[in-house]
Amino acid sequence: MGSVVDVLERFGRATREWFGAAFAAPTGAQAGAWQAIGDGHHALVVAPTGSGKTLAAFLWSLDQLAREPLPADPKRRCRVLYVSPLKALAVDVERNLRAPLTGIRHAAARLGIPPPDITVGMRTGDTPADERRAFQRTPPDILITTPESLFLLLTSAARESLAGVETVIVDEVHAVAATKRGAHLALSLERLDAMLPGRPSASACPPPCGRSRRRPASSAAPATSRWSSRAPPRPSRSACRCRSKT
Ligand SMILES: Nc1ncnc2c1ncn2[C@@H]1O[C@H](COP(=O)(O)OP(=O)(O)O)[C@@H](O)[C@H]1O
Ligand SMILES: [Mg+2]
């Protein structure tokens, strides 16, 4: 494994600039996660609350989206799906997704490079009907949702708007892993897998359990990397099942 700071070399200039201005260095959890994900592995991030796990998942996704061209078909635009069972979903999203995105845009402007054009949408039980219809017409790059809303999405015609998904982040896994809610989520993730074109081979990680990155079916079966920081007193897990074009 490279040094904690070296891992930042895997990000684009604007992301590095923002991160360097915001924080002294990546946390151990972030360095481990980015190393594994950057190497194309599935990754499970297990570390105490406040270790930067959610930011690790969002920042990698933002950076990838910023560097990828937009899909030709706008219906394939939603490439990152974030699922969290938390009631206070919006707080995590504001702090770990919207704030970094704004920071990366400002950093890009300072560096004279085009600011990332990344859209974020949320779908929960409270989402009004007109916003749900808008999701179907113009999916955002990143969709934030709950296990229950994901199930409903997959059960409706709107599931077509998930056909371009490459990365799935499952956060707060510990809150659902041992429950019916978790079993239901695992089923939804399998349903999502089944409808994606070029379906990759099954995750080696029992879902939902980890942050992972999937490779296309044509490449080698994805390896699973489990990485943990020092033994946490109260483990909290961020998880993701991802597909990668690379
Ligand atoms: N490398 C870092 N150094 C210092 N603070 C960080 C770092 N990464 C994230 N943070 C901050 O720590 C807090 C917790 O991050 P978060 O990703 O929500 O942690 P977790 O998901 O592990 O609970 C947030 O306010 C975030 O901005
Ligand atoms: Mg978190």
UniProtKB/TrEMBL annotation:
<dbReference type="GO" id="GO:0003677">
    <property type="term" value="F:DNA binding"/>
</dbReference>
<protein>
    <recommendedName>
        <fullName>Helicase ATP-binding domain-containing protein</fullName>
    </recommendedName>
</protein>
<dbReference type="InterPro" id="IPR011545">
    <property type="entry name" value="DEAD/DEAH_box_helicase_dom"/>
</dbReference>
<dbReference type="GO" id="GO:0005524">
    <property type="term" value="F:ATP binding"/>
</dbReference>
<dbReference type="InterPro" id="IPR052511">
    <property type="entry name" value="ATP-dep_Helicase"/>
</dbReference>
<feature type="region of interest" description="Disordered">
    <location>
        <begin position="198"/>
        <end position="246"/>
    </location>
</feature>
<dbReference type="GO" id="GO:0016887">
    <property type="term" value="F:ATP hydrolysis activity"/>
</dbReference>
<feature type="domain" description="Helicase ATP-binding">
    <location>
        <begin position="34"/>
        <end position="188"/>
    </location>
</feature>
<feature type="compositionally biased region" description="Low complexity">
    <location>
        <begin position="217"/>
        <end position="239"/>
    </location>
</feature>
<dbReference type="InterPro" id="IPR014001">
    <property type="entry name" value="Helicase_ATP-bd"/>
</dbReference>
<dbReference type="Pfam" id="PF00270">
    <property type="entry name" value="DEAD"/>
</dbReference>
<dbReference type="InterPro" id="IPR027417">
    <property type="entry name" value="P-loop_NTPase"/>
</dbReference>
